[in-house]
Design a protein that fits this description.
Blueprint (H helix, E strand, L loop, with lengths): L18 E13 L4 E12 L4 E9 L7 H41 L7 E2 L15 H8 L9 E7 L1 H10 L1 H10 L6 E7 L5 H15 L3 E5 L2 H4 L8 H23 L6 E5 L17 H20 L4 E2 L1 H7 L3 E2 L2 E2 L12 H15 L2
């Protein structure tokens, strides 16, 4: 029997008495040693005494044969791609893990009392020790029982409404208060997505009156986030701020004049552009200036009407992890609306006000 091509493995034990059967199998395979494709011819021979022998010949396949240089380069690039992929995956996992650990630590250091300000600037933040003014006043008025709970109207935009329905804001508030006092509270969601202070002003008095609220908390920022300040001229922007302050003064004057309302607080604006997000205008610097300007107006009005101010903007920034200039959606789910953490910070700050 003869074979074509160079024989890499000779037939084994070929000296036998008589050839009975020979099976030949042809196939194409990759010859790693020679870095090319070859034709493989395998033989199996059985003799009369029952013994077997076999052999393999490899024939160069000129059509598919690759040069050693091409094959080595292909293997190298494949191995390099796999290596880069796994290294990138490991770095990503490490980054997320370290950020989560670091963030957990940051939140343990968060103190809501640092971001709830007394209406008197000389007093600054309310401090860590609850004064109990709201509790004492409510209890003296016969409020705080299951039959007659302390009613709190939460008025605003999606900072209230989305947090209520998507983040269980009401449950968060009740759970925190249950750890502090036996007084019973009832929270009412009066948030409306996209509401500006003008929208709020048209409905707040009828709503608070219908709720028979003892306490009102305002939290909104749609004036800052949804207003088209990008295309305003400086005089137009100045007028925008004047109109905003007039509307807020009107709201506060009407609500604080209601006899049933004993306590009130102003909160917000919150965040805008915590990202990355897919709307480039959210990185426009002037939005940050709008947030800062309206925050200053809110503080000034709170001092004028002698109500506490809840600084949601600074509170949320204090627990956001900002590495290499990129926020990682810690406090918002889309750059603006509260994530689970953002709603928790909101609840923490509201409760700190309620222990005022």
């Amino acid at each position: 029997m003869s074979h074509n091509g160079p024989v890499y493995n000779a037939l084994l034990d070929a000296e036998q008495d008589q050839l009975v059967d020979e099976n030949l199998v042809d196939e194409e395979s990759f010859d790693k040693e020679n870095d090319g494709y070859v034709n493989v011819r395998s033989s199996r021979i059985q003799y009369t005494d029952g013994s077997m022998s076999g052999g393999v010949t490899l024939e160069k396949n000129d059509e598919n044969f690759k040069t050693p240089t091409d094959g080595n380069q292909r293997d190298y690039l494949t191995r390099l791609g796999i290596y880069v992929f796994f290294v990138a995956a490991l770095l990503l996992v490490a980054y997320i893990s370290l950020a989560a650990i670091y963030h957990s630590y940051i939140y343990t250091q968060y103190h809501p009392e640092d971001y709830v300000y007394n209406y008197n600037p000389a007093f600054g933040a309310l401090g860590a020790e609850p004064t109990g003014v709201i509790f004492a006043t409510s209890k003296a008025a016969g409020l705080g029982t299951p039959a007659n709970p302390i009613v709190v109207s939460l008025v605003g935009d999606s900072m209230i409404n989305k947090a209520w329905w998507e983040r269980n804001l009401g449950g968060k508030l009740l759970g925190r208060l249950a750890k502090i006092t036996n007084l019973q509270f009832k929270f009412i969601n009066r948030g409306s997505n996209g509401a500006t202070i003008s929208n709020i002003g048209r409905r707040i008095v009828p709503q608070v009156t219908a709720d028979n609220s003892t306490i009102v908390i305002l939290n909104w920022d749609s004036d800052a986030t949804d207003s088209d300040t990008y295309h305003m001229t400086p005089p137009q922007y100045s007028q925008f701020k004047v109109n905003y302050e007039q509307e807020l003064n009107w709201v506060m004057s009407n609500v604080t004049s209601l006899k049933q309302v004993k306590f009130m607080a102003i909160a917000g604006p919150s965040l805008y552009g915590e990202g990355p997000v897919f709307k480039p205008e959210r990185f426009t610097p002037d939005k940050g200036q709008v947030l800062a300007d309206l925050r200053d107006i809110n503080i000034g009005v709170s001092q004028k009407f002698k109500v506490p101010y809840i600084d949601m903007n600074h509170a949320l920034h204090s627990v956001s992890v900002n590495w290499w200039g990129l926020y990682r959606y810690w406090c918002t789910q889309d750059g603006e609306h509260y994530s689970e953490l953002g709603a928790s910070v909101e609840a923490d700050n509201f409760v700190r006000f309620l222990t005022y």
